[in-house]
Amino acid sequence: MIRRFATTSVLALGLALPAHALDLTQMTPEERDIFREEVRAFLLEDPQVIMDAVAVLEQRQQQAQLQADLSLVSDNAGDIFDDGYSFVGGNPDGDITLVEFLDYRCGFCKRAHNEVAKLLETDGNIRLVVKEFPILGEQSMLASRYAVATKQIAGGDAYKALNDALMASNGEVNLRTLNRMASTFGLDSDAIQARMGSTEVTEEIQRTHALAQRLQITGTPTFVLQDELLRGYLPYDQMQALVDEKRG
Asked: CB-hemisphere CA count at 13 Å for 129?
């Protein structure tokens, strides 16, 4: 685009520049000065050209990122969709898989939690995989260790109950509040607390962090919907539209 408008502006003035004149490295100092003045005048006359060029650049960058993300998902599909330890909810036999990387201290994760729950309820044919990805400090890590320990000791239903409670809570996360949540669901808080520092819990969280690093995930929530990485919060309507698109 820039090449086109520069050529047009120079020719419009009837400047008799040699054939190499649009190659700045081959121009004489006088030719370069003339060309720069013409470009400057053109942009001042029609500054929308700059905005159009920026829009084209952004579109190309987005397309390049999309293609890179598709490759990342394909290369890491086993660890994303079937790692053997992450919680699987929704419809385990659903035709669409949605993977979520979350942090219990993330405000957008809390908002997304309700949107995902609505999607699972209204659609009924989505398999959900939850990845514990604590990145927002000590309270995030404490909550994730407790949640993973709960899953390892008491199973998926207990994990989901605790996960829902943590996402609904806006208070400080500490062992006292976590144990209170566990007791609400009839869980053995002593056993969970003893498990929190185990090698099994540590390895699960470390493996998820390593996967996130390979996928170039730096924030939460981040979703993987079938073959596509979705970085950031999405409302229910947009998620459902994307699911419909994947089915189509």
From this structure: 23
Which residues are CB-contacts of 23 (< 8 A; sequence separation ≥ 6)?
none
Note the pLDDT tens digit of each residue in 160-207: 999 999 999 999 999 999 999 999 999 999 999 999 999 999 999 999
Q: Give the pLDDT band of residue 105 (cuts 50, 70, 90).
A: very high
Q: Which residue stretches of 124-198 are H helix?
A: 138-154, 156-168, 175-184, 189-195
Distance CA 80, CA 22 (A): 50
User: E strand or H helix at 126, and its extent?
Assistant: strand 126-132
Chain-centre distance of CA 148, in angstroms? 22
Judge contact between 214 and 74, C-beta under 8 A.
no
Beta bridge partners of 127: 90, 97
Which among 139, 138, 141, 162 has a CA at the least distance from the CA of 151?
162
* Coil, helix or strand at residue 145: helix
Query: Rounded to two decimals, what is the model's pTM?
Result: 0.75
Please name which of 34, 66, 76 lies closest in space to residue 231, comparing C-alpha atoms.
Answer: 66
- Decide if pLDDT at 15 tops 70: no
C-alpha to C-alpha distance for 165 and 151, rounded to whole angstroms? 14
